[in-house]
């Protein structure tokens, strides 16, 4: 190439650049959003980590039903269903012409395969309880599935909408952890470990095509870096923003929209009920009265978050406000400790995982406990350590954590759960709830359950975790609330 | 009189005095949380303002200085206590022992100090004791190397030859003649290592690997200030200044001591 031609090419390139810029810009169609935690893998049917669902739910994978922005069960792969009068048989009519991202066709056999796989004895599903009611799954024809229940279940359709109940392909199920293949509107592109996961619009999606053609989930664990990345425009959305102290700055900036919503995250001070002195109900009551929830929310979350008095979200219709039952009362706490035989208090440990709410909240709670005589030594642990030591091995005294699953009141009825809490009356209530259909009777039972937990004080209830969403002011369609941990991108678009 | 010695000594004594004073008195309880008083700027009531929990920053800096000084002091003690004998043995024995010790020294020295410290605290868990051990270990080769070099130059002098001639044991020569002659050099080195120790401790607590809360520490104060720099810059300013001034003071002291103790002056 001579010098002259080189110059001509350069000119052409430059002209193209200007022409491109002069064209009326079509709406932007890519999005980079950030999350705090990187998921361990990308198979929602094989892990409890909320970070998995935050990427794949409704984007890559779909279930028979799906949970919408307001927490309601909606049709998804099942376009509709019939329920028998005894509420024990559900007949699902499936969408036809649906394909998995690897080209395999979706039909009733995949539904049977997925549900049977999830409830098999050797299943690694983190929420096997969702499928507990299922007696058998039968394929009627490629577009019809009949599910028979052992007993009527009030929230069966809702359970099927969880990320743990999505439909996976028979040929791809084994490799979903690294290369997730679903039926959703977005295809998995690649995963740069430690950095980001990229999705692209699926060209043969069966439903309405999303407006975005590219979506990248970036992992930013550091709150200071989170603010910087938003301000610099490197990311355009942080659906669950980790630095509440920086929120006023974004609220004042017209380039951003700040949405404070709710989550299903009941944040609690967990106590090891099997370990003295926490096996003594009076000690647990004393701890509940020693904690000033308002100070915890103001100090750790800069006022974002709602006080709770039991293990139930305030936005749920069956919520009962029990925050007055265990009021902040250090004198009463001391009296209860004395009655329990700990006149001079005691020494214990408080293991804190990395999130800001736990680290900051832990410091405040340790100070509050100290003022009633309980000396809680703070031990900072990383996530892997927390899961191993606290959650799995139950080697802890106190810890702070947010339980983000929806409708997870039943964890207090589980003998194998890390609280080590045993309450037969509560177990009976949970069994009754699960057999009662949605409605007033069920809500009344939920109320009973909340009161039982408040009275038994297995743990200290702190707050309902807020969803602090910050994104570009021109971005539309992201969820305000987290009825389940998910970033559903199907309705997200850029305003013209 | 040497100017950097005076300035350095004054700052060092002030910091040490502040740490001692904190045992008897601080303006407020350094761990007392008062959420209602959070994020206040400097005022007459709180000279350095308050942090995100409403704690008094001046009190936290005063109490935090104890932690910094204690960790750095013990770490330098470990480094000197092990490093100096190693250096002396290597210099007087020579031969394969010298080679072995010094190559091992190089090995430890080759690892970046802070990375080594992070590794140690990551393996054994965060805490003041592990931070001390971590910082102490990377001080060992520094002292061993300085000691060996200085001792070798002394060992070739005539008076050592004379001592050997009258039948003095090599251990006796080392203690009576070598050590006093290199002491000034080691004191200067210790001062500088002390400053580095304070920085290392701040670095480790910044990363969450130092003393756990509620004990205040300068590094963690900086970490906590990081996300609030836009709304409460004083939270970062004062602990930052405390670290800068202390390290500067110690470095000036080291410089001054080198000038004053240098026999050629």
UniProtKB/TrEMBL annotation, chain A:
Keywords: Signal. It comes from Phyllobacterium leguminum. GO terms for molecular function: peptide transmembrane transporter activity. InterPro entries: Peptide/Ni-bd, SBP_5, SBP_5_dom. It is found in: Periplasm. Residues 1-27 form the signal peptide. Its main location: periplasm. It comes from the Bacteria. GO terms for cellular component: ATP-binding cassette (ABC) transporter complex; outer membrane-bounded periplasmic space. Belongs to the bacterial solute-binding protein 5 family. One of its GO terms (biological process) is peptide transport. Residues 73-402 form the Solute-binding protein family domain. The keyword S-adenosyl-L-methionine does not apply. This is Peptide/nickel transport system substrate-binding protein.
UniProtKB/TrEMBL annotation, chain B:
Keywords: Cell membrane, Membrane, Transmembrane, Transmembrane helix, Transport. GO terms for biological process: transmembrane transport. SUPFAM superfamilies: MetI-like. It is a multi-pass membrane protein. The chain crosses the membrane at residues 69-92, 104-123, 185-209, 229-254. InterPro entries: BP-dependent_transpt_permease, MetI-like, MetI-like_sf. Residues 65-254 form the ABC transmembrane type-1 domain. The keyword Cell membrane applies. It is found in: Cell membrane. Its main location: membrane. It holds the Pfam family BPD_transp_1. It comes from the Bacteria. The keyword Magnesium does not apply. GO terms for cellular component: plasma membrane. Belongs to the binding-protein-dependent transport system permease family. This is Peptide/nickel transport system permease protein. The lineage of its organism: Bacteria, Pseudomonadati, Pseudomonadota, Alphaproteobacteria, Hyphomicrobiales.
